[in-house]
Amino acid sequence: MNHKSDDIVEILITQEAIQRRIVEMGREIAAAYQDCLPLLVGVLKGCVLFMSDLVKEVEIPLQMDFIAVMSYGGVHRASGAARITKDLDCVIEGRDVLLVEGIIDTGMTAGYLLRNLEARQPRSIRVCTLLDKEARRIVRIPIAFRGFNIPDRFVVGYGLDFRQLYRNLPYIGVLSDEITGLNRN
Ligand code: IMP
Ligand code: MG
User: Where are the beta strands (DSSP E) in the chain?
Assistant: First the structure.
């Protein structure tokens, strides 16, 4: 069901390619965490489709939790400041945490989350992202598990939105400039 929205100028990653890569990532994650009980922390809401498909391919016991964060735009953005709008339900002290993101762009959000979660003293914390827009990186983020490197284009689908729309597309597509205009966030 690769339904193509008229607002999408190009399908960058098909549903099939996403699913194939997720099987590989699931195996890598299972191998890395086979001797412990990892806690996968999904960053809402972009992670939702990715996380739900990913965990089915991680064939070891694991636990899941979610966190939601709002990054500040405009002049405050450069500071990397953000606000947690939904915190974790569980304590992560001593846990092996895997932060699961839909996309890492400038790295500001992941950087903020890593600092915040590290302060809670997990035993380990690593990052997994479906998409990596490395060309835009400002904050260095060590990525342990990466789905795809993508070029500097605004993408939607498979959980990623523009103004809360397009999250339900089963593929990653490039959104038309006519829709995004200059204000992409
Ligand atoms: P950051 O720049 O790495 O902090 O990314 C901030 C957030 O912007 C991400 O978690 C996404 O929610 C969003 N974002 C960045 N690039 C894109 C994109 O190409 N499409 C949709 N959302 C994006
Ligand atoms: Mg968004």
Answer: 8-13, 39-44, 63-71, 82-86, 96-104, 124-132, 145-149, 155-156, 172-175
**Residue 30's domain is classified under what CATH number?**
3.40.50.2020
Closest atom of ligand 1 to CA, residue 43 = 10
Confirm whether 95 is domain-assigned. yes
Strand 39-44, strand 63-71: pairing:
parallel
Q: Which atom number of ligand 1 is nearest to the Cα of residue 154? A: 19
Q: Is the pTM of this model over 0.90?
A: yes
Would 181 be classed as within a structural domain? no
Q: Which of the four pLDDT bands, split at 50, 70 and 90, describes residue 1?
A: very low
C-alpha span between 108 and 29 (Å, rounded)? 24
The pLDDT tens digits for 104-157 are 999 999 999 999 999 999 999 999 999 999 999 999 999 999 999 999 999 999
| 152 is known as an active-site residue | no
Domain containing 143: what range? 8-175
